[in-house]
Amino acid sequence: MKYCRYVDVFQGNDEISLPTPKGIAATWFFIKAQTGNTSPGATLPFGRLSVAPFSGGYPTGYGDRLINCSGKPDRFADGNKLLGFSHLQHSGTGAVGYYYNYAVTTPHYGSAERRTPSDETACPGSYSVRLEDILCELTVSPDFALHRYSFGSDGGRVTVDFANNGLTEDHGRLSCTEGELKLEGDCVTARVVMQGVTLYVSARCYGARVSAEGLKAEFSGFGKTAVVAVNISLKSASAAKDRLPITKPSFDRCRAEASAAWEEMLGRIDIDADEQTKTVFYSNLYHSLVKPCDWGEESLFWSDKSPFFCDFMTLWDMYKTQLPLVFTLCPDVSERIAASLIRTGETLGYIPNSISLSSELRHEDTQARLLGSYALMSAYYHGVKLDADRMLSVIERDIFHPDREDFTLHGRCRSATHTLDMAEGCINAARIAREMGKTDLASRLERLGSLWESVFDEDGYITKDSEYYEGSRYNYSFRPCDDMERRIALAGGRERFIEMLDRFFGYGADPVVQPTDPRDGRYIERGMELGRFEGFNNESDMEAPITYALAGRHDRACEVFSAGLEYMFTGGRGGIPGNNDSGALSSLYVWCMLGIFPIAGKDLAVVLVPGVRRAEIKLATGNTLSIETVGKGKYAKRIIFNEKILKNGMLSVRELMRGGRMTVERSEVV
User: Fold this and answer.
1) Which residue in 5, 328, 361, 605 has the fewest CB atoms around it within 10 Å?
2) What angle do CA 358, 55, 112 make, to 5 degrees?
3) Which structural domain range is residue 117 located in?
4) Does residue 59 have a cis peptide bond before it, meaning omega lies within 30 degrees of 0?
5) What is the pTM of this model?
C-alpha cells in the first residue's frame, strides 16, 4: 500500500470543522483555541529542517489566524496572501511566545511583497504553490531545505530576509538582536541571534549573483529557474555552509527521497479500513511524527557528539501519547531521543518542560513536573536501548533538584497537580530502582510517593486550594493513579467514584454551548464551573477516560473513546479538535484507532476497542503486533492477547512490545 497518498498534510491547518456532537460528546466543553495549528510545510520525519509557506499567521507562520487561546481564532486581512517561505516552524502549538519562521525566502520581480496563492498542493516531504506566474516548490533533505522557483518571465529575483523572527510586524514578530552577513560566490551565510540562541544560516542560489543590504540578501541572474538550498546550524558558519551542495542538486530526486522516507515511516502501521478512515488515520500518524527534531551532534548544551533533539516544545502534552507512540514504532529515533534527554538532565541537573531553540529554559515551568523523567521511564518499559544507570541517575537528580524541595522537603507543592506529578513520578522511579537492585533509593522514593493522598479533599476530589493549569480540580481528579483501590476509597467507594466519573464525562447532562468569541471570557468561566471533560480539545485530561477501565468500568472507557473517534476527529483543514501540540492530539487519535492506551511512565497499557478492522504494527523491538476485531459494536466482549484473556483490558507494555496477536471480540451491548 502507498501510505503517503492517504496523508492530507493540510489536516488541522485551520479552524475546527467537526461533526455535530451527539450523546455524551455534546456535553464536553472546549476551553482551548478551536484550531489544530499544524503546518503544511515540507519536513522529514523528526527532521531538523522544515520549510513552509509564510503569511505571518499564528502560530506556524501559515494562514490568517491571530494569536488566540480560546474560542474560534480571529483573522487578519493579509493572511490569505504569502510573503514567501520560511524555515523552522512549530507544529500544533499554542501561544508559546516565540515562533521561529527564520530566513524568509521570497521570489519576486520588483519588490518582495505579499501575493495571493493558487494551485496549492502538499504531500509528505514537499509543498507547491503558484504566486501569480511563479511556480514555487519546496522539499527537504537531511542536510538542507530546497526551493525551486520557476518564473514565467525574465528578470526574477529571490530575496532572503535573515532577520525575520516570528510572525508579522503586527502580531508576533520579534527582533533579531544581533546579526551579520558574509557573501561568497553564489552563497550567503548569516550569523543571527534569535531568542538568545546563535544560529548560522547559509543559502546558495546556483548560478546566481548575490548582493546584500543589512540582513537581507538578494539573488539574481539565474535565468527563469532558481534553485535555492538553505541550511541552519547551531555550531558554526562553516558547518552551515559545508552541508550545502557545491553543484546544483536535483530537486526531483530530493523530493522523491523525502517521500520515500515518509513512506517507510508511515508504513510501520498498516490498517484495514475504508478509504476515508485511512486518510484521517495516516494524516494523524503523519502529524504525530514531525516532532521532536533531530539536530544530530549539534547541541545547545554540550560540545561533544551526543545526540541532541530539540522542539519538545510542549513536552507536557507529548509525554502522554506522542512520545510513547514514537517509542513503540521508531527504534533508532527512540534511542537518540532517550540519549538526548539523559544528556540534557546530566548537563542541566534537570529536564526542562520545553526544550527548544531558546535560551529560556524555564518556559512554561508552571504546567507540570518531571515530564522528561516520565518520558524516560516510558522509553525504558518500551524496550528502548538506553543506559539504565544513567537514566535512573538523571531521574533522581530531576526529582531532588532544588526547585522541587517544596515536595521533597515539605511534602506538598503549591499546585496540587505538581504534588501528584512528583508523587507518581517517585512511585514509578522507585519501581525501576528496585528492579535494578538500588533498594536504598527505592525506599527513599517510595516514602515520597506515598504523599499523593494529601491533595484530595473529604469530597473525594483534588483540593480546591490550588492553582490549576488549563483545567479545574475536576479535570485533574481523574488522572490514572498507581494505587487505584486507595484512590477509589478516598472517593467514598467504587459506586460513588463511578458516579463522579459519570458526572465529569457528562452522562445525563444537557448539551453545552461551545465558546466561540475569544474575547468573551464568560463562556470559559461558565464551562469551567461545569467541571466537565474537555473533549480532546485539550490534553490536560485526555488520559482520564482510562480511569474508567482502572475502576472496573471498561465499557464506559469504550463509550468515551468511541464518541471521541466519531465526533472529535475528521478529515480536512478543520479535522483536529484543538492545538495539536507537537502531535499530542494526533497520536491520541492513532492510539484510539489501534485500541490501545499506554500510561506514561508505567509498564501498563489498557486495551480498548480498535476503530479499524485490522492493524499490523512493526514494533521498535523488531517484533510485529497484529490486531484484529471480530463482530460489531463499541464494547469489548472479550480481548485475547497471545491466547490469554485480558481482564479489563490490562496489558504490560513489555508484553505489548514482544508482539504477537491481539483479537478484540466486539459487542453492541455491555
Assistant:
1) 5
2) 105
3) 41-242+249-264
4) yes
5) 0.98
